[in-house]
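Thread title: Can someone regenerate the structure for this chain?

I was given the following input by a collaborator and told the matching C-alpha cells would be attached. They weren't. Posting the sequence so someone can regenerate them.
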Amino acid sequence: MSVLAKLQRRSPGRRYGRSRDRILQKAAGVSRVEIICDTDTWHFITKRARCCAGAQVDQEDSTMVRGRVSGPDLVDLLVTLGDGSRGGVLANWPEDMRAIAGRVYDIVAEAVQAVDLDSKDGKRLPPIEIDHRVADAG
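Best answer:
Regenerated them for you:
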C-alpha cells in the first residue's frame, strides 16, 4: 500500500462517516459558531485558515479567546486543516503543524456532526472548545 493510501485511510474526515462532504455540508449551514481556544491555537487557525483572520474575537482570560466564525469560514477551516493534517494538498506541512491541524480538525468535525440538515427547529451549535484537561483524581 502506498504512503498516500495509508494517509487517506487514517484521514480525520473518514473517522466521522463515509464522506467528508457531509461534514462540509453541515458546516456550510451553520450561521455562526464560537470557537474557544488558547491564543496560540487561535493564531495557528487564523494563520492557516485565512478566512478566520477577520473573525470577531474576545479575550476570555489571559490565555483563552472566543472567536466567532461563519459557516463558510468553518468550511474553509475544515478543508484547510483537514488537508494539512492528512498530508494531502498540504503535504509539506511539518509534523508539528500536522498534529495541531489534525487535533483542531477532529474537534471541529465532531462538533459539526451534531448538525441535523433536515431539522427545521432546534438548538444552535454550541461553542466549540479546544481545551483538553487532565481528569480530576478526586
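Residues 1-17 have pLDDT under 50 and may be disordered.
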